[in-house]
Amino acid sequence: MLSNLIQAVFLGGYYAMVACGLSFMFSVMRIINLAHGSLAILSAYLLYVLAQKFNINPFLGLLIVVPVMATLGWILQRYLLDRSAKGGELLPVLTTFGIAIVLDNLMFQRFGADTRSLAPYIGDLSWASYALPGGLFVGKLQILVLMTVIVVIGALQLFLKKTQLGRSIRATAMDPDTAGLVGIDAKRATAAATAIAMATVALAGAFLGMRATFEPYSGTPQLLAAFEATVIGGIGSLWGTLAGGIILAIAQTLGASVHPQGFLLGGHLAFLIVLFFRLHRNRDAILTWLRVRTA
Amino acid sequence: MTLLAIENLDVRHGQLLAVKDASIKVDKGEILALVGANGAGKSTLLRAIAGAHRQTSGRIVLESNDISDWQSFQRVKSGMSLVPEGRKLFQDLSVEENLVLGGVAGRKGMWTVDKIFETFPMLVKRRQAKAATLSGGEQQAAAIGRALMSNPDILMLDEISLGLSPAAVDLVYASLNNAKSGMTIVLVEQELSRAMNFATRIVCMLEGQFVLDRATRDLNRQEITAAYFGKQRSTH
Known about the structure:
Largest interface: A-B, 17 and 25 residues
Radius of gyration of chain A: 20 Å
Oligomer: heterodimer
Number of helices of chain B: 9
Strand order of the largest sheet of chain A: 1-4
Number of strands of chain B: 10
Distance between the termini of chain B: 41 Å
Number of helices of chain A: 12
CATH architecture of chain A: Orthogonal Bundle
Number of domains of chain A: 1
CATH topology of chain B: Rossmann fold
Strand content of chain A: under 5%
CATH class of chain A: Mainly Alpha
Number of strands of chain A: 4
Strand order of the largest sheet of chain B: 6-7-8-3-9-10
CATH superfamily of chain B: P-loop containing nucleotide triphosphate hydrolases
Shape of chain B: globular
CATH topology of chain A: ABC transporter involved in vitamin B12 uptake, BtuC
């Protein structure tokens, strides 16, 4: 049981790694990026190609893929999401849904249905583990993922709090109109925020490919886990997303211990319980909001 | 010397023509008060000048630049700053963060965060407090401070007394008096006596047009009141 719990915490760290970009984008731009999972898979494929064709170790490959994904995020925001945002707040979400479909099928066309993994290119890291007293084993890669996500979230928080660009991003999220009047280029701020979110997606894709296998349509389950972790942790809080990821993983582990097929169900249940609890607690605010919107 | 020139400006709010064919010149160092009834188009005019609300036709010229098509953040960079109606501080950011953001345009000048706290001493102990927790007067001071942080050539203030106690308004105007040295100011003020005390020139708007424009010293209250309510109304 203790072993399961420890594994769940590490799995939660991985979920948080996938979720932090989604959470960041949602809290800053109010966009649920439905292409989040597919973009993570794209990063994994990019690393795979670099490793297979050019013999570049995936960790070194990140030096290329992180800037590539960040640039892609910038372009995505500037030329697709900004424009679609003019058509209302639902349109950017639909746009990301479209991007997800296009990406999934392009990857299928290019790479076929074979499952791939980055594990063969990182030595024994994907299965090596440390033995702890009491007969417990902890995977080296899992430790690396958890440490990375803590560093990434900490760095993002510092960035938002201490740098002028970070403050500009937060101000734009609160009130884009006033941000402009203060002298902030709101479009630049949101493009930078998306670029940062995509840089974290590149990391998530790398770890996804290292710890397991992926195929062109693996994005959706990743998106689902990321979304659940974000909602459980509370929108707008990155440390909350880490907690959300861990809660999700523990619920899945508990689900699996009840029934072998209960793994995903346990996670979904935790998600729904938190969701309904939040809806119930904020019902007055939500009803007022609905009334204002429909009036 | 003309700092800001508005030429034949039309601004719409949907169907409503809120500012009609408005033309005006503001000289360097002038303190101009825009007065007029609710809905006369004062705030809309200020927002159009600041770039928050796009005009349908006409030109806005700042110094020698035609800024009609510039976005609001570009206008801040070229020396224009608006304190919006309702103050519009970034509520979840601290007072200091709000002020630091005000300097994002990177214009050099006398205004720094420390100088703002010197000019608005009531903000000093609220430095790290979230803007949302400030009183109305403190919020107004912080909003003015944030606008000053861009070291503007022309500062526009929209309804700074709205929703404040008379004592808080006194305090805000007192600090503004300390701050104004040499700056060009355009302010919208509902309270006539405050406008007349503070401004060197009064411009009255009625239904989107300028109906009175004169130096404060050549005006009396009756003339402004007549313009305020419109000529037809005053003959009744």
